[in-house]
Every structure is written in structure tokens, then in C-alpha cells.
Design a protein that fits this description.
The protein has 322 residues and is an alpha+beta fold. The chain contains 8 helices and 14 strands. It folds into 2 domains: 106 residues, 2-Layer Sandwich (Phosphorylase Kinase, domain 1); 199 residues, HIT-like (HIT family, subunit A, 2-Layer Sandwich), CATH 3.30.428.10.
Length: 322
């Protein structure tokens, strides 16, 4: 075993190959040598410093801010927190920034830490309380940014694919998820926005939609395979969120190597294939996901918890009714 100063070993590491990169691009494993002996170097980005003095100066420390796109109050960027490199080897961006401006109290609540709760939404609770809540959200203009994309007014540079199906009901747009760096294939995360507006969430799907859903899934597989060389259909997972972030039906498409996160977990994500299978077993074309219990998690600051499920838990009437 080498008795060299441990601090000098890193600078003596001679890179040979990249063995692996995690799907988020935050961890890499390098193969190389030190003094002619084989070595592996595992590199992971350190946690952010949360000292108030550092956080106060953080916006001033960020350099080379490059806007990737914007829509309504949402903007996203790549930027640097490291010293400038040379002209021959410029420092690559190491930060991905999402900006919400101006934000609302609902945004603050969503992104603040909050205790989660498990709830079971019965068909009765959905019809009487949750559906009216969804309608209110849509009427408040919370979907304006989605419609801006669909109608071609904003963010068209981020549209990866816009379908032209024989039946306009089948049309969709394919977009990169805001949390994907658009480079790391193992971290691939896309959103398929359907153009039809009669579907708000998975709750609106019925047995009569099975044929359409299967066609949509098959078309999405073919499209993604065409966009990204080396990606095959059995490398992709399809799921929907319930509750979704916004009430316009959309499908998440992720690479199987993407590290599972809370957004893919039980209580948030529902496999599209499982939804199709469940719908296919229902009794008639009008029966659907509105007729089943759905379990999911909510933060204690969310409106669904404070206005509906917390009152129900303590025996009071929810504030949202049909």
C-alpha cells in the first residue's frame, strides 16, 4: 500500500475512461492509474453550503448564466459556480437553475419542507370535493402556460416533437422535463402533453379510452426511439401523476436508468401500463378511474390537505364543494 500523502494522490490520478455516470449527472466513476497502478475515482457533487452568509451572496457568485427557456412566470438556466477556466478548456456549467418569478404563496408552500400525509380519495370524495377544486384551479388561469405551449405562443424552441395524427384528438407535444439536463440519456425525462382538453387527470380516463391510450403509448415509443439514438422501447417507463402538478393530462416518460425519486414513488406515480390494464377490465366504456379509490400523499401545506382532507379527518365539512 502506498505511503504517499493522501492529498497528493488525487492530483496524480491519470484518467483513462468513464465507467459510469448516474442519471442525474451528479456522480461519476472514473478509471485511471496512479504511479502506474490501477485506480478508481468516485466523484460526487458536495452538498450546498447553507450558511446564511453564503446563501446571501449566492446570486452574486453565479456566473455565465444562460437562459434555456421561459414560459409565463417560469424560467430555467444553466450557470457556473466555479472559477473561470481557460479559453481552451472553459469551465462547464455546474448549476441548473429554475426561477419562478413572481411566485405566489402556493409556490412557497409547495417548495417548503412540509410533513407528508397519506390519503385515500374515494370516488365520492373526488366527485364532491376534489373535482370542484380542480375546476377552480383551471378557472383561475393556472393552465395558461400549458395552453401557451400547445397553441404555439411560447416555448416552441423547447418542443421536441409535435405530432400530426390523422385524428386531431390523438395529437400531442413532447417536451423535456425541467429537471433533465437534456444531455444525459440515462437521466432522460420527457413530458407528453396531449392537445385535447377534455382530460384533466387520470381520473377522466374510462374503458372507452383504452384504444386511444395504447395508440398514444405506441406512438410515443416510436417517437422517442427516433429522437434519441440507442434508446429502445423497453428502456422507457411511462407514468402519470396523481395528484398532478397541473390539471391537463400529460404523461411522464423516463429512462429506466433514471434514479427513482419521490416523483416516481408510490403515492405519486401510477404506471400508465397499469392504468390501461385496469381500465381494460372494467365493465363498460363509461366506467373508469373516477370509480376507484386512489391513494396518494399530500404535504400538510397543500390546499387539498388543508381544505379537503384535514377537515374530513376531523369530522368537518371541506371548504371546497360542488
Amino acid at each position: 500500500m502506498s505511503t504517499s500523502n493522501p492529498n497528493t494522490l488525487i492530483t496524480r490520478f491519470k484518467y483513462q475512461s468513464l465507467l459510469r455516470q448516474d442519471s442525474a449527472g451528479r456522480r461519476i466513476i472514473l478509471k485511471g492509474t496512479i504511479s502506474g497502478q490501477p485506480a478508481l475515482l468516485l466523484v460526487e457533487r458536495a452538498a450546498f453550503d447553507i450558511d446564511p452568509a453564503y446563501l446571501n451572496s449566492f446570486p452574486r457568485l453565479v456566473t455565465h448564466v444562460n437562459n434555456l427557456g421561459d414560459n409565463d412566470i417560469y424560467r430555467w438556466y444553466m450557470a457556473n459556480s466555479l472559477p473561470d477556466g481557460t479559453l481552451d478548456q472553459p469551465t462547464p456549467p455546474d448549476l441548473k437553475l429554475n426561477l419562478i418569478y413572481p411566485c405566489t404563496e402556493a409556490h412557497v408552500a409547495k417548495y417548503s419542507f412540509q410533513q407528508s400525509r397519506v390519503v385515500v380519495e374515494t370516488p365520492e370524495i373526488y366527485a364532491k370535493y376534489v373535482r370542484p377544486y380542480m375546476q377552480r384551479c383551471r378557472e383561475e388561469g393556472r393552465l395558461n402556460w400549458v395552453f401557451n405551449i400547445i397553441e404555439g405562443r411560447t416555448e416552441q424552441e423547447n418542443v421536441l416533437f409535435r405530432s400530426k395524427e390523422t385524428d386531431v384528438k390523438d395529437d400531442y407535444l413532447l417536451l423535456p422535463d425541467l429537471n433533465w439536463d437534456r444531455k444525459t440519456i440515462g437521466g432522460l425525462h420527457l413530458l407528453a402533453l396531449v392537445e385535447r382538453r377534455d382530460l384533466w387527470s387520470v381520473r377522466d380516463l374510462t374503458r372507452g379510452d383504452v384504444k386511444w391510450l395504447r395508440h398514444l403509448r405506441a406512438t410515443l415509443v416510436k417517437t422517442v426511439e427516433g429522437l434519441y439514438e440507442g434508446v429502445e422501447g423497453d428502456m422507457l417507463k411511462f407514468y402519470v401523476h396523481y395528484q398532478p402538478t397541473y390539471y391537463h393530462f400529460h404523461i411522464h416518460i423516463v429512462h429506466v436508468d433514471l434514479d427513482p425519486s419521490a416523483t416516481q414513488g408510490v403515492g405519486k406515480a401510477i404506471s400508465l401500463d397499469n392504468v390501461i390494464s385496469q381500465l381494460d377490465t372494467m365493465s363498460d366504456a363509461l366506467t373508469g378511474m373516477a370509480d376507484v379509490d386512489l391513494m396518494y400523499t399530500l404535504g400538510e401545506a397543500s390546499e387539498l390537505w388543508t381544505k379537503i382532507f384535514l377537515p374530513l379527518k376531523v369530522g368537518k365539512l371541506p371548504e371546497v364543494t360542488g
